[in-house]
Design brief:
Blueprint (H helix, E strand, L loop, with lengths): L13 E5 L2 E4 L2 E3 L3 E3 L4 E2 L12 H8 L5 E5 L9 H9 L3 E5 L1 H13 L4 E5 L4
Parallel strand pairs: 6-7, 6-8
Antiparallel strand pairs: 1-2, 2-3, 4-5, 4-8
Helix pairs in contact: 1-2
Length: 124
Amino acid sequence: MQIQLETGGRHYLIRSYGPGQITVGETAYRSSLIVLPDRLFTDWPPQSVAALSVSHMQDLAGLDCEVLLLGTGQLLRFPPAAILAPLTNAGIGIEVMDTGAACRTYNILMGEGRRVAAALMPIV
């Protein structure tokens, strides 16, 4: 799906997503990534919910965000609560959704000036 949002600033926007790729700015990525308005991490290891660990969530808890969107691929899949605990313990709101919904929601919240992060797994 192609999506557009212009903010006039130097922010990381998700331009499109679909099977096998997520396009941020002008670059297509084919694996999991983390997107914040001012930072992009293209080497996030888990490629599926089954691969998520507490240490992945501890890393995300260190981001300067008020809400984290977890895109779980083509389908919505909830990780065990114990894996999400580092985020809730850090006072970070977490929303779990399929990756397409996470991409759309990220752009909306980022456009509103919210401190949002999206941890996105590929749509396969």
